[in-house]
Amino acid sequence: MACERYVCKGVLLVFATVIVTTVDVLCQKCNHWHRRPFTPGKEIPLYIGAMFSSVEESTHIGAVESNLRPAIDIALADINNHPCVLRGYNLTLINKDTQCKPSMGMKSFFDMMNEERKKLAIFGGACTRTNELVAMAANFWHKVQLSYAENHPMFSSRDSKDMYQTFYRIVPGHRDQLQARIRFLHHFNWTKVGAIVQNDDSRHSLHMEAFTTAIERKHGVAILATHGFSSTKMNIREGLKHLKAKDARIIIGEFNVSLAAAVFCEAYSQKLYGPEYVWIIPGYHQDYWWLSKTDQLPCSRFQLRKALEGHFALRFTVIRSDTTRVWSDKTAAEYDAEYRAKCKPPHCQYSKYHGYVYDGLWTIAQAAENLITTMMMRGKHFNPEQDLLDSDRDVMGAWKLALMEAIDSLEFEGVTGKVRFYQNERLGRIRIVRFQNQSYTAVGEYDGAEDRFTLFGQRIIWQNGSPPADAIQEVIIRRYVDYSVFYIMCSLVAICIMLAIALLTVNIYFRNHKFIKMSSPNVNNLIILGSIMTYCSVILLGIDTNMVSELDYSRMCTAKVWILCFGFTLAFGSMFAKTWRVHSIFNDIHLHKKAIKDYKLFLIVGVLLLIDVLILSTWLIIDPMQMAVKQLPTEKDERSNLLIKPTIEYCKTDYTVVFQALLYGYKGIFLVLGCFLAWETRNVNVPALNDSKYIGMSVYNVVLVCGVGVAISFILQDQINECYIIISMFIIFCTTVTLALVFVPKIVELMQNHRDPTIHYPRAMMRSLYVINKNRMLNKDIREQILRQEKEKRILKRRLSAVSSSRFDLENGKKNRFYNFRTGSSRNAGHFEILRQTGHQRPPSGGRPFEKRNGDDAGERRRPTLRWRIRGPDRREAADQLRGVGQSSGKSLAGTFVHHQKIPAHSCQSRPARIAVVVNKVGVQKLS
């Protein structure tokens, strides 16, 4: 039993402690309510003038009394039943219907002011035209007005402090909307925006003016273009064209819901929608507002929905989404459920302002509670029937200031968020929603009371996977030769250099071989050395600042030009010198002995190199090369919405054109002259000059490739990869083909005759040269003498033939008998003269030499043939009469060569003809 007593005492002690603690907390929370005298059932009425409308305004849909009555009843019940707020008072609303008319609004206000029941404050209304007049009158009557739905920006203007000094609003207004937009733009780093505004409605034009001024002056956001349109002119198309011309990608819209569908329909026509554009418009609190106007628009619902996809809307929060408990010890969700339970259609429609009505009444109650507590602390008791009847304006002004001060100092949790005022405006919550997948989704929120911006990024579905840019971003990109291209070219160059080194090794190792020795191996070494240098220039052409520093790149500019010029001069200059030697030998009209040694060829190449050194040294001294950056034409990347400004590196000097003209001009003349020499010696194929034909082909190859390569390099100089590939391939191709033409025949010959240096080669001169001994190998030191002797031999043969013919006619004149035959033709009267020739005499001048028959021994001549010379007007008659002579003589004339010359009988006939006739199977026994 004793134990049970101790237990009971302990439980009672704990219970008493909890009660005392709870009372202390409540006392602190309720501002010493326990000290206020209170008689249950005898509460003092505290009247509030309410201005609700039975008519709905287009800008405040749902703000009618019928839709807000459940919220009013819930709020009054919670306030009057709360143990801490207005203890001993009963908050009562006296409602007047303004019908959203200024006249009715003013009448309602004056009626309330003249009633015996004095009003502590005015609660309402929703219609801007009514609020504007009532707010100015309330300031004159020293009455505080708190609106639950007004968000017009004129109440936040500079003149509002004087005109609407006592006007407050519980719904978030212009300030929170402005801050929410600015924070939203900053979150995505959008610093360039365009704006389109309905300028015949001050609700939107004033807000846009304040917004553009604030972001340009304080937040560094540039306004690309602003266009206004009116509901009467509907000049939306011109405005959107202007925005599109300015390339505005982030568009801020301010217009009524009645015009929003028309704006987006025109945006669809102007193609101002899609992943590249972002529209930010006011929140209309209607998820399907766009469906009601589609029948009056030139676009379909599908097109309008496509234009709306992805736009953002900023609207005040209807009900907070967290679980914070408010003064009535309810959560926002619990209150919302209670409101929905009492608001049943058709008499009540869900209103977006019901939470602000609830928090607005609590605001007045809390302010009154603070005012009453302040008076109690001063030893005064607040009696509305007496205190509010004082006609002294100073006293009423003091009450006004006291109530305003109480409202300004409020800070409590409401169903719409934390309630806090700054310069007569509620610092509330602005919710950011996005239209995606044909409905609105909350993606962020701005809390003005806490100055906190929250964005639910995971809820935003960007069409391109990322937020669009505020404009086509200009990106400067330095373009380099691709590594893959550079490595491929370096690999090809490495292979070609190894091939050239192999050819150089062969050329040096077999330099004493007859075939190699006759082709001037020392000059061939220069060709290979020049080829290696041109190969190396391909590597230098691909090096840029992505691999070396800018200083080293400037040095590489000079190295590129020097190495390529020297390589070209060594390779082509050596081929040019060898071609010139062939041309000099075969174009000596006097056939003097001319031996052109290799040192002369080296001298030619040295002179060409000296010219290169002079030009390049002058260029280096006067105007050294430096690295420069060239801006290429701007490119637009449609996929990433970027404006790319590519740049390339190049070697620049002030006199580039001058020195390039000198080099190209000098090299061009060089190429043209080399091509001329190759053409002049195109038919030469002399064993002593065994590679002259291939050297000529190499010259053609170099001329063609260099001409095409220089032209293409100028055309593609801005396309760095393409230009590098083409120029490199031209250099590699030209150099490799040249080496192949010059050295592959030598390699083949060495493979066939690598052991025997004394080989018999077929030799031929130009087309006018006769074939000489096929088995004799000419020495290169006597080839000029042989050519000269061949020509002299031909001249002597012609002279010997003429002398032999004259001697034959003189010595054998008696042995020759002439037979004259008269022809039967009167027109061609003449005669035939038949001349018999015997012996080994040479034929008459102009006749053909004796030839060998098939099968005859070498050097043995055919036996003498019987030849006749027949002169007369007709070949057929001559043959017939000759046949007759043969039959009469009985001698065989088979194989006899007969030369017939027509001699005209009259001087008027010209153009004598020589006709050769071979008479077969006719014989002559005696010619006398």
Count of discrete alpha- or pi-helical segments spanning 4 or more residues:
24
The N- and C-terminal alpha carbons lie at a distance of 194 Å
* Radius of gyration over all CA atoms, rounded: 58 Å
CATH architecture of the largest domain: Up-down Bundle
Low-pLDDT runs? 1-29, 31-35, 756-781, 814-873, 886-928
What number is the mean pLDDT?
76
Number of strands: 24
Query: What spatial form do the alpha-carbon principal axes imply?
Result: rod-shaped
GO molecular function, one term: G protein-coupled GABA receptor activity
GO biological process, one term: gamma-aminobutyric acid signaling pathway
Organism: Trichinella spiralis
Membrane topology: Multi-pass membrane protein
Question: Layout of SSEs?
Answer:
Elements: H1 2-29, E1 44-52, H2 65-80, E2 89-97, H3 102-114, E3 119-124, H4 128-140, E4 144-147, H5 160-163, E5 167-169, H6 174-187, E6 192-198, H7 202-218, E7 222-229, H8 236-245, E8 250-254, H9 257-269, E9 278-282, H10 301-308, E10 312-316, H11 332-342, H12 354-377, H13 384-387, H14 393-408, E11 411-414, E12 417-422, E13 425-426, E14 429-436, E15 439-447, E16 452-455, E17 473-478, H15 483-509, H16 514-517, H17 521-541, H18 550-586, H19 598-622, E18 626-631, E19 635-637, E20 642-652, H20 656-680, H21 692-715, H22 720-752, H23 783-811, E21 836-837, E22 867-871, H24 875-889, E23 896-901, E24 914-919
Parallel strand pairs: 1-2, 1-3, 3-4, 4-5, 6-7, 6-8, 8-9, 9-10, 17-20, 22-23
Antiparallel strand pairs: 10-14, 11-12, 12-13, 14-15, 15-16, 18-20, 19-20, 21-22, 23-24
Helix pairs in contact: 2-12, 3-4, 9-10, 12-14, 15-17, 15-22, 17-18, 17-22, 18-19, 18-20, 18-21, 20-21, 21-22
